[in-house]
Design a protein that fits this description.
single chain, alpha+beta, 3-stranded antiparallel beta sheet, 13 strands, APO domain-containing protein, APO_dom, RNA binding
């Protein structure tokens, strides 16, 4: 009898322990099996590992085989689909202008919001925190972090810490000369990759000219051949703009595109001057709306215009191929002679979505390291706008973990 009671008590204790273990598992952040928090960003990968491919390798191999068979079946053919044939995609020209205006609006809004909500950045690593005081979560990986117990050393940050726009080489002819050689690295300017994406999609900026064609190009045994008559160049190392019609289907000539580009710049200035008189909540909401407009528009353009990124470092190149500049210093660069390992890029490679810890109440003490499992994350732009008064977007409610009640500091041992 006593033996049966003892066995029953042991089974009850095992069931209770399993119950609390399941509750503890649901509470942890970044659980891969929990669909509710599947969008919480994982910790940074090791620098020796390659970035995951957005498109599976089997699909890439199948595409390469189909292209090879198409070249064998028809060695000389005219490319029909834009932008591979050198022409613009008509429906994406206005999207490029919208992305450009949205980027200008985001930069202006962030410069104004930082005067109210400061940004803290670590002196030794890339960690960023939105608020008047940095958090106490020990995640520093910078030099001598072991002597500081991985604690961050905070200093004042700026707009470049909230959102980053990686730079790439500007291509004058994305189809005729899609690659930049190593010897040309100092002659060709580098501009933000999202700006280069807008230029290739139809945006006209006088400082960064690009070639526009009237007729599609030909593909002869895998090589691009352009039979269109081109105006004579003046012999400079960086050619000037060619005043030709873009595409009859686009419905706009080069002069109209230039006027629209100047109008977009004027629109940004006028919009900025109007924002000065608005309240902080309206400014933060407008900035967040421009942020989502920029991200969604860039995604739409990237579906047609290819963007490449290095599989081991942060280098980005907008165009059908990556450049040949030997500047990679990431893992295994010796075997590649400093060349980048190019692959398909994502929106996070084009625009730096710097994730930061979400602060629910700015008046509460700093985030505690023992309670980090209960804290959520969000892109720095979203966190800054939310702290300035903008409503929390539905896309990041789960990531910010608004439905999780974090315990007090003296209650950690009771729930951990």
């Amino acid at each position: 009898m006593d033996k049966d009671i003892c066995l029953n008590s042991m089974e009850i204790e095992a069931d209770i322990e399993a119950y609390f273990e399941s509750e503890r598992t649901l509470t942890l952040v970044g659980d891969a099996d929990d669909p509710l928090y599947a969008d919480v960003p994982r910790p940074p990968r090791k620098m020796s590992e390659r970035k995951p491919y957005p498109t599976p390798m089997k699909v890439l191999i199948q595409r390469a085989k189909e292209e090879k068979e198409a070249r064998k079946a028809q060695p000389c053919r005219m490319l029909e689909e834009p932008p591979d044939n050198g022409l613009l995609v008509p429906e994406l020209v206005e999207v490029a202008h919208q992305v450009y205006r949205a980027r200008q609006s985001v930069l202006f809004g962030l410069s104004k919001l930082l005067q109210v909500v400061p940004v803290q950045r670590c002196r030794f690593c890339s960690e960023v925190h939105i608020g008047h005081a940095g958090h106490e979560i020990r995640t520093c990986t910078g030099p001598n972090s072991g002597f500081r117990s991985a604690s961050h050393v905070w200093k004042k940050g700026g707009v470049q810490d909230v959102v980053s726009f990686p730079k790439c080489f500007h291509l004058y002819d994305r189809v005729g000369k899609p690659r930049v050689g190593h010897d040309e690295r100092y002659r060709i300017p580098r501009i933000p990759a999202i700006l280069e994406l807008c230029i290739q999609a139809g945006l006209e900026i006088d400082e960064y000219p690009t070639k526009r064609r009237m007729r599609p190009v030909y593909c002869i045994e895998g090589r691009i051949v352009d039979f269109e008559m081109v105006n004579k160049m003046d012999g400079n190392s960086y050619p000037g703009i060619v005043d030709t019609l873009v595409d009859p289907d686009v419905g706009t000539n080069m002069e109209e595109l230039r006027n629209s580009a100047s109008l977009s710049h004027t629109y940004c200035v006028d919009k900025s001057s109007v924002k000065v008189g608005k309240s902080l909540t309206e400014l933060s909401s407008t900035t967040m709306g421009s942020w989502f407009e920029m991200i969604s528009g860039a995604r739409n353009i990237m579906e047609k215009y290819s963007v490449k990124t290095c599989g081991y470092c942060l280098e980005v190149q907008v165009g059908p191929k990556g450049h040949k500049v030997r500047m990679c210093k990431a893992s295994r660069h010796q075997s590649r002679n400093g060349l980048h390992a190019w692959q398909e890029a994502t929106i996070e490679d084009l625009v730096g979505l710097n994730y930061v810890w979400h602060v629910r109440d700015v008046n509460c003490p700093a985030l505690d390291n023992n309670l980090k499992r209960y804290y959520g994350k969000a892109p720095a732009v979203v966190e800054l706008c939310v702290q300035a008064g903008a409503p929390v977007p539905d896309e990041y409610r789960s990531m910010m973990r608004l439905d999780v009640a974090s315990p007090e500091r003296d209650e950690v041992d009771l729930v951990a």
